[in-house]
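User: Let's play a game. I give you a shape written as tokens, and you guess the letters that built it. Ready? Here's round one.
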């Protein structure tokens, strides 16, 4: 059902094309002078718009329509060169031109870019040249013109086709065939035109007055050129005034309408005020040049307007991204002054927009002993090098922040024009990292202490086992000396003292390390540990009372521990 609907629509388009083609071939429309000589040929513009705007296969329909027009309107024989060969030549030339423009060149059918307009004019003019050669040759073959009229007929033929190509086809491509393509599409979609990228005229009183002024100017120019008799041949340049006005103000969409109106107005004026034979070719040349200039200028204006819109959109996107970014962003100019800052930057450093212009961005940085100072960091960025580092910054209220800084130079055509600085407040992360390190160090110390305690308990258990197996006091002293050295590997020296039988003298049962630091014997009242019955530090910070049994050469701290067995002190 859908395919049948599409076929019917194509049939209606084909029928409408044939009828409109016959209408545009009427002698009063083309200002027919005689076979081979016309002022313009708008039907070729219709053909080009159809094969380019819809499909190159419609060139076959153009071939049929041209043959039908030659037979019905001009009474040419069906098998004449002008009716058969010329119709086929038109189909081949303009069908091939449409294929090249749609395929390899892939131009914008809205003609909003100057590049596409130039390509369209060049390719269509080339097709017109080939079609002119074929058409004029067919006229000569049919004896419709003589060999002597070849050049003038060829010039008139080419000008007529070219005017239709640059004066009629662009209007149809821009305003008519986007809707035709959408109508013929199996799935109707929104018409994608260049309206959004062309200068748009709002329906205001000023726009209406300007449009009326343009219409009045076109009418006045036509009256000056054709309605007056005094020096009208010297006023052709006035045609450019309304066309340039429309092109510069509204771009290609309005100028194609103005060209269509002016070209039709010129033809109507020539009907009302017939020109001389010498003026006939000049008018056709004027219509061609005027159409080409208006089309190119209008496309240039539309392209500039499109670029301006794209630039404004990109600027709006970038500004929205910067202003709504959670990161603090500041843009510096080439002098290092703040040119732009987002809300996050103002909140981070607590400066308002009026104060930003007066501050030096480097003054918010606190250099450390390992990093370079602020001017060197900024110079590094303006030298074209990206910068990423963590530094400390000072807010307006004096609070110190830990910041991650990303500095990027702003390059324009290879030249540094400024810099982007992106700040991220990492104070919480830095505090969390510090707490994590402290926790890890605490766990490490705890593990080491547990390992040491385990090792000490093992040594004590070994010493207890060996003491239980010792048969003499000397063996027991040796066991104690070896075990204590393992328990205190960093001690310089040590000794085990035992009471003599008289209990008034203490004698070293065994000594190790620096033997001269400890006396071999001393009286019992010379040790504060024995006096107090508890461990005593000598030379320990905060305790200036030292045991008298220590030698004068002893400079280290000394710990004396009394040994008690079954309530009796046996040594130290």
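Assistant: Ready! My guess for every position:
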């Amino acid at each position: 059902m859908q395919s049948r609907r599409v076929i019917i629509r194509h049939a209606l388009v084909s029928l409408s094309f044939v009828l409109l083609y016959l209408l545009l071939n009427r002698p009063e429309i083309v200002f027919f002078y005689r076979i081979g000589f016309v002022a313009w040929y708008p039907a070729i513009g219709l053909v080009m718009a159809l094969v380019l705007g819809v499909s190159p296969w419609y060139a076959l329909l153009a071939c049929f329509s041209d043959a039908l027009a030659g037979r019905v309107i001009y009474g040419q024989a069906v098998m004449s060169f002008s009716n058969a060969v010329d119709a086929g030549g038109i189909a081949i030339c303009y069908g091939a031109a449409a294929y090249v423009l749609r395929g390899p060149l892939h131009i914008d059918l809205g003609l909003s870019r100057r590049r596409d307009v130039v390509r369209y004019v060049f390719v269509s003019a080339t097709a017109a040249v080939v079609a002119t050669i074929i058409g004029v040759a067919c006229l000569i073959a049919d004896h419709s013109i003589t060999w002597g009229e070849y050049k003038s007929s060829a010039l008139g033929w080419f000008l007529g086709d070219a005017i239709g190509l640059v004066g009629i086809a662009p209007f149809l491509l821009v305003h008519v065939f986007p809707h035709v393509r959408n109508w013929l599409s199996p799935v109707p979609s929104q018409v994608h035109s260049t309206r959004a990228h062309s200068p748009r005229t709002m329906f205001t009183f000023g726009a209406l007055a300007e449009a009326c002024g343009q219409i009045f100017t076109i009418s006045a120019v036509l009256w000056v050129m054709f309605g007056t008799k005094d020096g009208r041949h010297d006023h052709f340049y006035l045609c450019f005034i309304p066309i340039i006005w429309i092109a510069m103000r509204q771009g290609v969409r309005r100028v194609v309408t103005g060209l269509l109106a002016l070209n039709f107005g010129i033809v109507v004026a020539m009907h009302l005020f017939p020109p001389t034979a010498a003026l006939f070719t000049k008018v056709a040349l004027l219509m061609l040049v005027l159409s080409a200039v208006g089309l190119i200028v209008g496309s240039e204006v539309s392209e500039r307007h499109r670029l301006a819109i794209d630039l404004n959109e990109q600027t709006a996107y970038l500004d929205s991204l910067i202003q709504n970014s959670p990161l603090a962003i500041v843009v510096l100019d080439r002098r290092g002054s703040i040119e732009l800052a987002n809300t996050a930057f103002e909140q981070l450093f607590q400066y308002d927009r009026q104060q930003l212009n007066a501050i030096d961005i480097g003054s918010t940085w606190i250099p450390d002993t390992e990093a370079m100072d602020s001017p060197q960091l900024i110079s590094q960025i303006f030298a074209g090098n990206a910068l990423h580092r963590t530094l400390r910054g000072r807010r307006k209220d004096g609070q110190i922040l830990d910041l991650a800084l990303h500095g990027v130079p702003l390059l324009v055509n290879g030249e540094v024009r400024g810099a982007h600085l992106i700040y991220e407040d990492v104070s919480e992360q830095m505090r969390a990292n510090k707490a994590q390190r402290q926790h890890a160090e605490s766990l490490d110390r705890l593990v080491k202490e547990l390992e040491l305690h385990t090792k000490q308990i093992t040594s004590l258990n070994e010493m207890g086992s060996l003491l239980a197996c010792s048969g003499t006091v000397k063996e027991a002293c040796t066991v104690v000396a070896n075990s204590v050295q393992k328990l205190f590997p960093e001690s310089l020296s040590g000794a085990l003292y035992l009471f003599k039988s008289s209990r008034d003298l203490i004698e070293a049962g065994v000594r190790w390390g620096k033997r001269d630091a400890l006396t071999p014997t001393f009286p019992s009242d010379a040790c504060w540990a024995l006096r107090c019955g508890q461990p005593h530090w000598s030379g320990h910070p905060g305790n200036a009372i030292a045991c008298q049994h220590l030698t004068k050469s002893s400079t280290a701290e000394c710990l004396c521990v009394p040994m008690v067995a079954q309530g009796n002190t046996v040594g130290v």
